[in-house]
Write a structure and sequence with these properties.
116 residues, 2,3-Dihydroxybiphenyl 1,2-Dioxygenase, domain 1, 6 strands, 18% helix
Protein backbone atom coordinates (compact mmCIF):
# COMPACT_ATOMS: atom_id res chain seq x y z
CA UNK A 1 0.00 0.00 0.00
CA UNK A 2 2.58 2.63 1.07
CA UNK A 3 5.37 2.97 -1.48
CA UNK A 4 7.46 5.77 0.03
CA UNK A 5 7.46 9.07 1.86
CA UNK A 6 7.86 12.60 0.49
CA UNK A 7 9.46 15.14 2.80
CA UNK A 8 9.32 18.90 2.20
CA UNK A 9 11.84 21.31 3.69
CA UNK A 10 10.74 24.93 3.57
CA UNK A 11 13.61 27.36 3.07
CA UNK A 12 14.18 31.08 2.70
CA UNK A 13 16.87 30.19 0.14
CA UNK A 14 15.69 27.00 -1.52
CA UNK A 15 18.15 27.29 -4.42
CA UNK A 16 21.15 27.26 -2.05
CA UNK A 17 19.77 24.31 -0.09
CA UNK A 18 19.00 22.40 -3.30
CA UNK A 19 22.59 22.94 -4.46
CA UNK A 20 23.83 21.73 -1.06
CA UNK A 21 21.85 18.48 -1.23
CA UNK A 22 22.98 17.97 -4.84
CA UNK A 23 26.63 19.07 -4.68
CA UNK A 24 27.74 18.54 -1.06
CA UNK A 25 25.61 15.65 0.19
CA UNK A 26 25.56 14.22 -3.37
CA UNK A 27 22.07 12.78 -3.03
CA UNK A 28 20.53 11.27 -6.15
CA UNK A 29 17.87 13.43 -7.73
CA UNK A 30 15.47 13.75 -10.62
CA UNK A 31 14.37 16.89 -12.41
CA UNK A 32 10.57 16.78 -12.50
CA UNK A 33 10.39 19.82 -14.78
CA UNK A 34 11.79 23.33 -15.02
CA UNK A 35 14.80 22.47 -12.84
CA UNK A 36 12.61 21.34 -9.91
CA UNK A 37 14.67 18.61 -8.21
CA UNK A 38 13.36 15.84 -5.98
CA UNK A 39 16.05 14.02 -4.00
CA UNK A 40 16.34 10.35 -3.22
CA UNK A 41 16.93 9.44 0.40
CA UNK A 42 18.28 6.29 2.01
CA UNK A 43 15.78 3.97 3.73
CA UNK A 44 13.69 5.92 6.21
CA UNK A 45 11.81 5.26 9.39
CA UNK A 46 9.09 7.07 11.29
CA UNK A 47 8.44 7.27 15.03
CA UNK A 48 5.64 8.81 17.07
CA UNK A 49 6.37 10.87 20.17
CA UNK A 50 3.82 12.17 22.65
CA UNK A 51 3.06 15.88 22.26
CA UNK A 52 0.66 18.48 23.58
CA UNK A 53 -0.55 19.28 20.05
CA UNK A 54 -0.62 17.66 16.62
CA UNK A 55 1.02 18.89 13.43
CA UNK A 56 4.67 19.22 14.48
CA UNK A 57 7.10 17.11 12.44
CA UNK A 58 10.90 16.87 12.41
CA UNK A 59 13.44 15.56 9.90
CA UNK A 60 16.73 13.94 10.90
CA UNK A 61 19.29 12.40 8.58
CA UNK A 62 21.21 9.41 9.91
CA UNK A 63 24.83 8.37 9.39
CA UNK A 64 27.12 5.54 10.45
CA UNK A 65 29.89 7.73 11.95
CA UNK A 66 28.93 11.19 13.23
CA UNK A 67 32.53 12.28 13.86
CA UNK A 68 33.53 11.43 10.28
CA UNK A 69 30.44 13.25 8.98
CA UNK A 70 31.25 16.40 10.97
CA UNK A 71 34.88 16.31 9.74
CA UNK A 72 33.77 15.91 6.12
CA UNK A 73 31.34 18.82 6.44
CA UNK A 74 34.07 20.99 8.03
CA UNK A 75 36.37 20.21 5.09
CA UNK A 76 33.61 21.50 2.81
CA UNK A 77 33.10 24.63 4.91
CA UNK A 78 29.75 23.49 6.31
CA UNK A 79 28.98 24.31 9.94
CA UNK A 80 27.75 21.62 12.32
CA UNK A 81 26.93 22.07 15.97
CA UNK A 82 28.88 20.32 18.70
CA UNK A 83 28.06 16.61 18.80
CA UNK A 84 25.73 15.87 21.70
CA UNK A 85 25.45 12.46 23.30
CA UNK A 86 21.76 11.58 23.54
CA UNK A 87 20.27 8.40 24.95
CA UNK A 88 19.27 7.33 21.42
CA UNK A 89 22.44 8.40 19.54
CA UNK A 90 25.07 11.02 18.80
CA UNK A 91 23.49 14.20 17.41
CA UNK A 92 24.68 17.27 15.52
CA UNK A 93 22.77 20.03 13.75
CA UNK A 94 23.82 20.79 10.19
CA UNK A 95 23.39 24.41 9.08
CA UNK A 96 22.02 24.64 5.55
CA UNK A 97 23.07 27.45 3.20
CA UNK A 98 19.50 28.80 3.35
CA UNK A 99 19.91 29.34 7.11
CA UNK A 100 17.86 26.43 8.40
CA UNK A 101 19.19 23.44 10.30
CA UNK A 102 18.69 19.70 10.01
CA UNK A 103 19.57 17.19 12.69
CA UNK A 104 22.03 14.46 11.73
CA UNK A 105 22.67 11.57 14.06
CA UNK A 106 24.41 8.26 14.52
CA UNK A 107 21.67 6.04 15.94
CA UNK A 108 22.09 3.70 18.87
CA UNK A 109 18.58 2.31 18.57
CA UNK A 110 17.57 -0.75 16.60
CA UNK A 111 16.63 0.01 12.99
CA UNK A 112 13.67 -1.60 11.26
CA UNK A 113 14.04 -3.30 7.91
CA UNK A 114 12.88 -1.03 5.08
CA UNK A 115 9.20 -1.45 4.23
CA UNK A 116 8.48 -3.30 1.00
Amino acid sequence: MITGAHTIIYSENAEADIAFFRDVLKLTNVDVGNGWLIFGLPPAEVAFHPAEENGKHELYLMCDDIQAFVREMAEKGVACSEVRDQRWGLLTALTLPGGGTIGVYEPRHARPAPAK
